[in-house]
Each structure stands twice: as C-alpha cells, then as structure tokens.
Amino acid sequence: MAKVHVTATLNGNAVEFLCETRQTLLQILRDELHLTGTKEGCGTGDCGACSVTVDGRLMCSCLILGAEMQGKSIQTIEGMADGEKLHPLQRKFLEHAALQCGVCTPGVLVAAKSLLERNPDPTEEQVRYWLAGNLCRCTGYNKIIEAVLDAASEMRRA
Description:
Strand content: 15-25%
Largest sheet: 5 strands, mixed
CATH class of the largest domain: Alpha Beta
Radius of gyration: 16 Å
CATH superfamily of the largest domain: Beta-grasp domain
CATH architecture of the largest domain: Roll
Shape: globular
Number of helices: 5
Number of strands: 5
Oligomer: single chain
CATH topology of the largest domain: Ubiquitin-like (UB roll)
Helix content: 25-40%
C-alpha cells in the first residue's frame, strides 16, 4: 500500500511522517512517532482516552486519519508539561488523587485543558458536560471535577 508524506506541527514542533491512508492519528502517534501517552480505550470514539487537539479542536485520535494531518497543529498529553514543570491541571490531578489506573487520564487532561482555554471560569456543571465524552472506570469522576475546578481557580489567579 502506498504511503502518504505528512508534515504537521506536533506539540509545537515540526514533524514529518509517512503513513498508510488507513492509519488513524492514534496509530501514528503511538506506533510511528512513539508518543504513547495518548491511549486507545475503545477505538470507536466513545471513551475519550485518545483525546488530542487538532488546530485547537478537541478530537478523538482514533477517529481521524493520520493522512488528514497535513499542515495541522496537533497537541497531545506529551506537550502539556513545560519540561519538568507540570501544567496546573497535571499538578491538581496529583494533589486531588484524580487518577487511578491512568488509561483515561491523558485524554481527560487534554479535554480539561481544552475547556479551560475556552472557559477559564467554568461551573461544575460545565466541567461535567465538557468531560462527558471521557469515560473513567476507576475514579467516580468527583476528584477529577474537583481537580479541574481547582486548577481553573489557580490559573485565573496566576
């Protein structure tokens, strides 16, 4: 099968890759670019574990093709921290123990960051609505919601 050459921006850095036209962005991230933070949960876009942003839009990377990324800007969980300095959301997830097994955590963090970029002062209801596409089997969501609200408060003060 012929491969497509793609140039894009990944976590702020120029990247090039070859992909088959049927490979998903999730497969490219994990198998070709070796960025394994983005997880595959369901493979059908129902769980949110593979959430990334593409040109600022929150998307399930299991539902979009790598070949569609030509010229796009992609943000993954690997681009969230600034070197060793964790993003406030990452710190608050640790402080609130808002993670357990970790499969959903990268997608939830990417989705929460996307929310706070659009709405720096969300209500609890707005956080719950925004994160409704991210399923977690372990935490019960309350600690996740508390961590997002706490991070939002800290980010507004900064």
